[in-house]
Design a protein that fits this description.
This protein is an alpha+beta fold and about 170 residues long. About 50% of the residues lie in helices and about 15% in strands. Strands 1, 2, 3 and 4 form a four-stranded antiparallel sheet that branches. The longest helix is centred in the first third of the chain and has 48 residues, at about 1-50. It is elongated, with a radius of gyration of 37 Å.
Length: about 170
């Protein structure tokens, strides 16, 4: 009977060893998961909120603050052109302002006004109403007009083309 008691005691210790190992693994994985979660949270905090600190300076100088330069807008005369269509006549009425660097640039561009209007008229007459649909169509139109005007007034440079009014009728 002593042998039976010894065999029963061995079975109990084996079961406790297996159960204790399972609990140890659970605690170990839980601890690792908590450390990873805390590390990810800290990294996200420093990444997202860390940009609020002032920029480091060299030799005690103040950080450089970029000032927005004033721009000048030059209004072009209103243009009305008929668009390329198969049947019904469709007109495009457009008012455009040019964004330039300073007043001196307006003086450089003014003599080229006939060339600018000619380039715009030729391009606008080739457009179809479908070319002007949606914001993507207007963005392409703006980029193409900017490219054409900069070719017309070179070496002067226009910074942007702004639509004041666009009407397709």
């Amino acid at each position: 009977m002593a042998d039976e008691d010894a065999g029963a005691a061995d079975d109990e210790t084996d079961g406790e060893a297996e159960g204790g190992g399972g609990k140890k693994k659970l605690i170990l994985f839980g601890g690792i998961g908590a450390v990873v979660l805390i590390g990810a949270g800290a990294g996200a905090y420093f990444f997202l909120a860390g940009g609020d600190a002032p920029a480091p300076t060299v030799d005690g100088e103040q950080p450089v603050v970029e000032e927005q330069k004033p721009v000048v807008f030059y209004d072009l005369p209103e243009m009305t052109v008929n668009l390329a269509t198969d049947g019904r006549t469709t007109y495009l009425k457009v008012r455009i302002a040019l964004e330039v660097q300073d007043r001196g640039m307006v003086d450089q561009i003014s003599p080229y006004l006939p060339r600018i209007l000619d380039a715009f008229q030729i391009y606008l007459r080739e457009l179809r109403p479908a070319d002007l649909e949606g914001s993507a169509g207007l963005f392409r139109l703006k980029e193409e007009l900017l490219r054409r005007i900069n070719l017309s007034v070179y070496p002067a440079r226009v910074e942007g083309v702004l639509f004041k009014e666009i009407l397709v009728q």
